Amino acid sequence: MPDDTSTSPEALRQGSTQPWRERMPLPAMESMTPPQRAAAQALIDGPRKGVFGPFLPLMRSPVLLERVARVGEYLRFESVLDARIRELATCAAARHVGNQFEWHMHAPLAAKAGVDAGAIDALRQGARPASGLKEDEALALDFALELLRTNGSSELTYERALRAFGEQGVVELTTLVGYFVMVNWLMNVAHTPAQASAGADMTPFPL
User: Fold this and answer.
1) Which of 92, 125, 151, 168 is most exposed, with the fewest beta carbons within 10 Å of its own?
2) DSSP assignment of 25-67, as one string?
């Protein structure tokens, strides 16, 4: 797919290789196999209401798409974790791997759920927010950032998270971070752009 700067402004692009192109766009409807059509319709009929983001490249593997989608639906919509915690941890994962799509989708959702806007912007700039977070939000962010940095959790951080969220919450928080790193990686490889509907206000991550 050729580079089209009229529909893919710099802020919307994902991936840095040049010349830039979206490597795995949505297949044309007439070229889809029956399993691909079924997978797309399931996404449209489900809580996502459309085919976008990581599900564009995942259309190449419809069985995997369906299974990834089900895991994501649970983590996003049914987890025992509060929406503030889920969205903040999702933002941390997106920022860690530099994924514009998930950041520009979930940063507004984090703010809507009640996370302080200043704290979200500090995270966008690559800093650990110094203020504005509630105690459980700060703990979840520390847990997520430590997990992303060290691929594990220290005893101190684990015990704090356990007291705050319980064993099920710790399992789901860990899995949520891993899930979003996975789909972010997929979009980074596929050069899946952020949605144009995010508009001209999108601000790329600082280096």
Assistant:
1) 151
2) -PPPGGG--HHHHHHHHHHHHSTT-S--TTHHHHTTSHHHHHH
